[in-house]
Amino acid sequence: MRSSLVSFLTIFLVGTVHALAMHTEVAKRTTGTASFYNVGNGTCGVVSKATDFVTAIAVPYYNGGASCFKTVTITAYGKTTTAQVVDECPECSYSSLDFSIALFEFFAPLGVGSIDIIWSFT
Predict the structure, then answer these.
(1) Which residue from 50, 64, 99, 116 could staple onto 104, CB 3.0 to 4.6 Å apart?
(2) CB 75 within 8 Å of CB 29
(3) What is the pTM of this model?
(4) Using CB atoms within 10 A of its CB, is residue 20 exposed (0-12), middle (13-18) or buried (19+)?
């Protein structure tokens, strides 16, 4: 009886840990929108160029600079790339990003204005 209980608990705990790990991985991905801006002196303290793959991040994720220089993975229109957080975006909604021109053009023409994205910290 004891060994059956131990086996049951082991299987239960392994399954629970696996499910939690999968849930955490899914929870890391964020759905939002992206627009673009003329980069320059970012709030993270670096100067970026329009050709850099950099992004500004919404205030809650910027977190007083805690996200500076972190890498985000971004997917849109069947394409995926990475970019570095170099700025805060006070105008962005909670889960949105503001891209450099080159980063935006990787996904779509500037004339589109904004795009739907899925992103996560790498």
Answers:
(1) 99
(2) no
(3) 0.77
(4) exposed
